[in-house]
From TrEMBL:
It comes from the Bacteria. This is Glycoside hydrolase family 3 C-terminal domain-containing protein. It comes from Microbispora hainanensis. Residues 581-651 form the Fibronectin type III-like domain. InterPro entries: Cellulose_deg_GH3, Fn3-like, GH, Glyco_hydro_3_AS, Glyco_hydro_3_C, Glyco_hydro_3_C_sf, Glyco_hydro_3_N, Glyco_hydro_3_N_sf. The lineage of its organism: Bacteria, Bacillati, Actinomycetota, Actinomycetes, Streptosporangiales. Belongs to the glycosyl hydrolase 3 family. Keywords: Carbohydrate metabolism, Glycosidase, Hydrolase. GO terms for molecular function: hydrolase activity.
Length: 748
């Protein structure tokens, strides 16, 4: 067995050149070995919904052939499961396959927030909500690492677009980072302890993530306690010495020794502390403990069956008028659309898996029903006569009891490496849907897409819509299981479906210009924005239908302290089918000095209920469920005040609510001569004292004219107000006021 305990090796026994060599890759996918020191080379490979272990040449873009592996539902689908068990079962299976293929680290999961539906890589991310993303990702990482390989949570941080991803500066205020773009990473780091964290390509507020000390050391290591390896995204390092000093341990891929020489030269020139090198070497050597070579095997058939089972948990039934679904096996069915025969089941780019097998929905539907006709409807490559294909499809639909149109996006419309320009379906598909809907008795749409697509222009013409996202290699069979009611749909949207692209909160700022993208919407991302400004969407975050019905009642909320509470609610399956229901707990408040979203998801769980069954569900709201990030104090704060706990059918529809009052935190602000007059007057100690000085001690309340004048001047810094107003406060008195304000700043 390889020796990987660096304490036993004695670090000083390795030359500086040897140590530096361990901090970059040997080639595209492996690290360097030091056999004389018992340090093995390990293999990293792409994930996260499968193992992309290349058999021959190296290629990060997924063009080279990789060893066959199971393609499980990607994160876009898992997000809509709202089920940590689904995420965990995928993580465990990927871990087993990684171990069988000799992989030490599987790159993923991706937890970047879906800031815009145009991001070309949204299929690799879970949600527009940081809580949902973080809970699912932590479950994935815990289960994967329990099987042996390590995970690499990515891409840290603020990597929410593909446009100029190698160099764009994401300009984001700290509150937005802390409340929206950091929490999923924080949860994974603190609850799942991933082996590695991958830094992103982009800059964050002007500084490349790969050499951003605030990100990689101050926040990630010191605040969150991360002890693993920070690895670069492939080719993300701009300045190897600056990156190492900032906290980036392992540069990938290899650079032919160039980076190693830069590190050695910097140490010898006194530009880099050798202790920094040693710390990163210790972490990289610890990572090699995951080296076990090829270990065990995986059952491809069992994993395919698992992929089918889990895919059915992820699809979202958006619309189902007049009980159109589930289908009867005796119905005459028309299946239309090339996606039915040639499924789109995963995204393009570095996560592209060489699937062990692929189920087509057309074959699966024919296995359920004897009378199934098929019409191509359109072609993915644009060949053929679109009008003839459309007319033939409409004719096929007219002779059936129900027509199922498979529509969506191909890899030419969305992939890693570029962003979309529209959320519309291709025009040829929209025209097809409308033609079929006009001809058919009933029409069902099944969507295959990695990012949100608009439903406008055809939604009201059809009877049912099943959002399948990208469901992995067994998605075709899973869709058939859902259409025929073998499985009851239980997916819920992990992202909002807007009416128009122009309605999206990042519309005016995405993807930026002149090398910068401004996150001008702040914390108002996704449903937080739509609900706050009361802007209608086609389908809200959290929406999802079932073949059964559920009722929620008996909401009780119990305070368990000044900054936490427990929520209990009863859920009943009021229909005639077994089904799964997602309990969504939102918190709404106006407490505190910052603008808060109308409501924010703060807890959730998915429960399975038999027909007529009721269950009490208890969820805990911790301190963070009520807190905002105070940038001036540099910490999380729970403001004293009222908080409304809401049970949402989705983010737009509240079915039960109750309000509690929390004591929150006692925060006494610090004021100085740079603070505004308004801040001084609102200070609990310095304010009354200042008012007495300004009114000559005559009264605690100024005359009306004086009060109006003070209000007009409330935004002026105190020092300038005194100068502007010609108020001469004795130096000793001013020092006393500043002391009452808690400031050590100058008194004059």
């Amino acid at each position: 067995m390889a020796r990987t305990d660096l304490d036993a090796l004695t670090l000083n026994a390795l030359t500086l050149e040897q140590r530096a060599s361990l901090l970059s890759g040997r080639d595209f996918w492996t690290t360097k070995a030091l056999e004389e020191a018992g340090i093995p080379s390990i293999t990293l490979c792409d994930g996260p919904h499968g193992v992309r272990r290349e058999a021959g040449g190296s290629d990060h873009l997924g063009l080279n052939e990789s060893i066959p592996a199971t393609c499980f539902p990607p994160a876009v689908a898992v997000g809509s499961s709202w089920d940590p068990e689904v995420a965990a079962r995928i993580g465990a299976a990927v871990g087993r396959e990684g171990r069988a293929l000799g992989v030490a680290v599987v790159l993923g999961p991706g937890v970047n927030i879906k800031r815009s539906p145009l991001c070309g890589r949204n299929f690799e991310y879970y949600s527009e909500d940081p809580l949902l993303s973080g809970v699912l990702a932590a479950a994935h990482v815990n289960a994967l690492q329990a099987e042996g390989p390590g995970a690499s949570v990515k891409h840290f941080a603020a990597n929410n677009q593909e446009t100029e991803r190698m160099r764009v500066s994401a300009d984001v205020d700290e509150r937005t980072l802390r409340e929206i773009y950091f929490p999923a990473f924080e949860r994974v780091v603190t609850q799942a302890r991933p082996a590695t964290v991958m830094c992103s390509y982009n800059r964050v507020n002007g500084v490349h993530a790969s050499q951003n000390r605030w990100l990689l050391t101050d926040v990630l290591r010191r605040e969150w306690g991360f002890t693993g390896v920070v690895v670069s995204d492939w080719g993300a390092v701009q300045d190897r010495v600056a990156a190492l000093a900032a906290g980036l341990d392992l540069e990938m891929p290899g650079t032919g020794g160039a980076s190693d020489r830069r590190i050695v030269d910097a140490v010898r020139a006194g530009e880099l502390d050798e202790a920094v090198v040693n710390a990163s070497v210790r972490r990289v050597v610890a990572l090699t403990r995951r080296h076990g070579g090829v270990s065990g095997a995986f059952d491809a058939d069992a994993h395919h069956a698992l992929a089918r089972e889990l895919a059915a948990e992820c699809a979202v039934l958006l619309k189902n008028e007049n009980g159109t679904l589930p289908l009867s096996a005796e119905a005459r069915i028309a299946v239309i659309g090339e996606f039915a025969a040639k499924p789109r089941f995963q995204g393009g780019g570095s996560s592209h898996i060489n699937a062990t097998r692929v189920d087509a929905a057309l074959d699966a539907i024919r296995a359920h029903a004897p009378d199934v006709a098929y019409a191509q409807g359109f072609t993915l490559d644009g060949s053929g006569d679109a009008r003839e294909l459309r007319e033939a499809a409409a004719e096929t639909a007219a002779s059936a009891d129900v027509a199922i149109v498979f529509a969506g996006l191909g890899e030419r419309e969305e992939s890693e490496g570029f962003d979309r320009e529209t959320i519309d379906l291709p025009a040829v598909q929209v025209e097809l849907i409308r033609a079929v809907a006009a001809a058919a008795r009933r029409t069902v749409i099944v969507l295959s897409n990695g990012g949100v697509v608009s439903l406008e222009g055809w939604h009201d013409d059809v009877d049912a819509v099943l959002e399948g996202w990208l469901l992995g290699q067994a998605g075709g069979s899973a869709v058939a299981d859902l259409l025929f009611g073998v499985v009851n749909p239980s997916g819920h949207l992990a992202e909002s479906i807007p009416m128009r692209l122009q309605d999206t909160p990042s519309y005016l700022n995405f993807p930026g210009e002149a090398g910068h993208v401004r996150y001008g919407e702040g914390v108002m991302v996704g449903y937080r924005y739509y609900e706050t400004v009361e802007l209608p969407v086609r389908y809200p975050f959290g929406h999802g239908l079932s073949y059964t019905t559920f009722a929620t009642d008996g909401l009780t909320v119990t305070r368990t302290g000044d900054d936490r509470a427990t929520v209990t609610v009863r859920v009943t399956n009021t229909g005639d089918r077994a089904g799964k229901h997602v309990v969504q707990v939102y918190v709404s408040t106006t407490a505190g000095p910052v603008r808060r979203p109308a409501r924010e998801l703060r807890a959730f769980t998915k429960v399975s209920l038999a027909p007529g069954e009721s269950r009490l569900v208890t969820l805990h709201l911790d301190r963070r469920a009520f807190a905002y990030y105070d940038v001036r104090l540099g910490r999380w704060v729970v403001a004293p005040g009222d908080y409304t706990i809401q049970i949402g059918e989705n983010a737009s529809s509240v079915v039960a609510e109750t309000t509690i009052s929390l004591g929150g935190d006692t925060v006494v602000p610090v004021v100085s001569l740079d603070s505004t007059l308004g801040e001084w007057l609102s200070h609990p100690l310095a304010g009354p004292a200042l008012l007495r000085v300004l009114t000559g001690g005559k009264s605690a309340r100024p005359e009306e004219d004086d009060e109006n004048g003070l209000r007009m001047a409330s935004s002026m810094p105190m020092g300038r107000f005194l100068s502007f107003a010609g108020i001469d406060i004795p130096h000793a008195t001013l020092r006393e006021l500043v002391a009452l304000g808690g400031s050590d700043g100058p008194a004059a």
